From TrEMBL:
GO terms for cellular component: cytosol. One of its GO terms (biological process) is L-arginine deiminase pathway. Residues 5-293 form the Aspartate/glutamate/uridylate kinase domain. Pfam families: AA_kinase. Pathway: Metabolic intermediate metabolism; carbamoyl phosphate degradation; CO(2) and NH(3) from carbamoyl phosphate: step 1/1. This is Carbamate kinase. One of its GO terms (molecular function) is carbamate kinase activity. SUPFAM superfamilies: Carbamate kinase-like. Keywords: Arginine metabolism, Kinase, Transferase. It comes from Companilactobacillus zhachilii. It catalyses: hydrogencarbonate + NH4(+) + ATP = carbamoyl phosphate + ADP + H2O + H(+). CDD domains: AAK_CK.
Length: 313
């Protein structure tokens, strides 16, 4: 019998808290892996994707601080690849350690993933994707003076952040390899930060100064590898209508068509829940299979079907 194939998309809370040190992030990844191992224990074929917004933003700051004629700063697409590798390295080690503690001897591999986008995507003229740390309102004038090419916006009531273009995924260049790795019984860690945004130029793939939304990247991968379910794990228990208001309502079971109405009415926060529900709906409409949005801490209950928001056809 074929195992159920699950694509899991992890939010930034799975990797980074308030401490941006490598040690603290590795500890966060270890804790996340202790939740993810529940999918393996439940005999699922697991494909892991993750965000990298804070990490790639911090790396860009380091690059800018050290920029010189002899040691020029690396571009955003290359920094994206570097964080795919570093976060993947942390997850490979953590997942292997946690699985061995649970008597499971499976291989885990990180695949540097390129996400093909349309060179004419309007997103290139409208930066919206937050990267890097949060800033206070008082810090913004100084940042704009030091980095006149940056676009800085308020982010969902949590502070101010730099934003960059976020084109939609058209194709995942390495998806046949992802599918082959999964079929071989190996756990692939793929499309970190949504994958490296590239455009096609004949036989060449050219990196772009942009960041793919990891939820849209996960949705596209889940469609291409014929996943049975897309699970988007975040810091909240699921999807809420009127979130943060006195009349907020948690949604446990909803059709893609129904939640699309709320998307069309612009009812979800653009920097947080909106891309998650859009990505989930895209997967459901393309495949007819369910997507779940729920809390990382509730993985056992999500697997049992007792927690999270299930979006279905």
């Amino acid at each position: 019998m074929t195992k159920e194939r699950i694509v899991v998309a992890l939010g930034g809370n799975a990797i980074l808290s308030t401490d941006a040190s490598a040690k603290a992030q590795q500890e966060a990844v270890k804790k996340t892996s202790e939740s993810l191992v529940e999918f393996v224990k439940s005999d699922k074929d697991l494909i892991i994707t993750h965000g990298n917004g804070p990490q790639v933003g911090n790396l860009l700051l380091q690059q800018a601080a050290a920029d010189s004629e002899k040691n020029p700063a690396l571009p955003l697409d290359t920094c994206g690849a570097m964080t795919e590798g570093s976060i993947g390295y942390w997850f490979q080690n953590a997942m292997k350690e946690v699985m061995l503690k649970n008597g499971i001897n499976k291989q885990v591999v990180t695949l540097i993933t390129q996400t093909i986008v349309d060179k004419d995507d309007p997103a290139f003229g409208d930066p919206t994707k937050p990267i890097g740390p949060f800033y206070t309102e008082d810090e913004v004038p100084g940042l704009k003076s030091a980095h006149p090419d940056w676009t800085i916006v308020e982010d969902a009531g949590r502070g101010y952040r730099r934003v960059v273009p976020s084109p939609k995924p058209v194709e995942i260049n390495e998806y046949p390899a992802i599918e082959a790795i999964s079929k071989a019984g190996v756990i692939p860690i793929v499309a970190g930060g949504g994958g490296i945004p590239v455009v096609k130029d004949g036989d060449r793939l050219i990196g772009k100064e942009a960041v793919i939304d990891k939820d849209f990247g996960a949705s596209k991968i889940a469609q291409l590898v014929d996943a049975d379910k897309l699970i988007i794990l975040t810091s909240v228990g699921g999807v809420f209508y009127n979130f943060g208001k006195p009349n907020q309502e948690e949604i446990f079971d909803v059709t893609a068509d129904e939640i699309q109405k709320h998307i069309d009415n612009d009812e979800f926060a653009k920097g947080s829940m909106m891309p998650k529900v859009q990505a989930a709906v895209a997967f459901v409409k393309a495949t007819g299979k369910p997507a779940v949005i729920g809390a990382l801490d509730d993985v056992k209950e999500i697997i049992a079907g007792n927690k999270g928001t299930v979006i279905h056809k």
